[in-house]
Amino acid sequence: MTAAQAPAPDAGSAAGPPALSAEHLCRRFRGVTAVADVSLRIPAGTRFGIIGPNGAGKTTLFNLLSGELRPTTGTVALFGRDITRLRSYRRVALGLGRTFQITRVFSDLTVLENLTLAQHGLSRTKLSPLRPWRSYGAMTTEAAELAGSFGLAGRLATPAAELSHGEVRELEVLLALALKPRVLLLDEPAAGLSPAERVSIMALLRSLPDDLTLVMIEHDIDVLRGVVDSAAVLHLGALVIQGSMRDIQQDDRVRELYLGRAAPGGRRRAGPEGSCS
């Protein structure tokens, strides 16, 4: 039995169900299998990474977990509750937050206004956004406190369009945090950042509450090593290995995927196995 095929540890045996789990997830697009029989169990409070070459199926897997896509087969559960058929906004209400590769902020609004609107998304009047700004008083106070906790206190009055790329990435994380998630999915939070900006986003991610479960896609291995405890590697939609960052970095299959190295003895290893039968 290979590491990819071995059953994951029973994350729910002692401390309740895993924060997020997937069982035999598959997604096909007109005959093309983007995610092939992936099973994951991510314990509460874990810092978990999902890595793999371009086209490995990482973002498609995120879309299945967050509800942007429905799986062809398989299930998704949040703290033991089956959410496979729930739409994305229902998953948000249950505590599943998400950021995206492409920036999703209101560029013409200030940092404070962006965060206040995110706070408004939790209120009973969220479908009635047209109201005097002064009526958002409690929300603006909470939004300012959130920004101050993560280093954006000095940028509250700055339009998002005037932020640096790194600050926009930080704002996106704060927008997700404003919805008070119990599990947060981050899709390449360090993409396109300068070395200094990567240090800043790593510091923000390391400062997140211990009880928040963090799952992130990231190509920068240094960022991953600085943030996550364990990870899963995907290739051609299938799970290659899941384990600690040390185990993953020492795995011959992972080295071959990223560096094109042959397995010991000059033989090339076969690719991962997966199906959506």
Please tell me about this protein's structure:
The protein is built from 9 helices and 10 strands. By secondary structure, the protein is α/β, with parallel strands linked by helices. The strands form 2 sheets. Strands 6-7-8-3-9-10 form a 6-stranded mixed β-sheet, with helices on both faces. The radius of gyration is 20 Å and the shape is globular.
Spell out the blueprint of helices and strands.
Elements: E1 20-29, E2 32-42, E3 47-51, H1 58-66, E4 73-78, E5 81-82, H2 88-93, E6 96-98, H3 111-120, H4 137-149, H5 165-177, E7 183-187, H6 195-206, E8 213-217, H7 221-227, E9 230-235, E10 238-244, H8 245-250, H9 252-259
Parallel strand pairs: 3-8, 3-9, 6-7, 7-8
Antiparallel strand pairs: 1-2, 1-4, 4-5, 9-10
How would you describe this structure in keywords?
single chain, 277 residues, alpha/beta, six-stranded mixed beta sheet, four-stranded antiparallel beta sheet, 9 helices, 30% helix, globular
Low-confidence stretches: 1-13, 262-271
Mean pLDDT reading: 83
Shape: globular
**Roughly what percent helix?**
25-40%
User: What is the assembly state of the chains in this entry?
Assistant: single chain
**What portion of the residues fall into strands of 2 or more residues?**
15-25%
What is the overall number of helices?
9
What would you report as the Rg, rounded to the nearest angstrom?
20 Å
Biggest β-sheet, characterized?
6 strands, mixed
Distance between the termini: 20 Å
List SSEs in N-to-C order: EEEHEEHEHHHEHEHEEHH
Number of strands: 10
Major sheet: arrangement of strands: 6-7-8-3-9-10
| Alpha-beta content class | alpha/beta
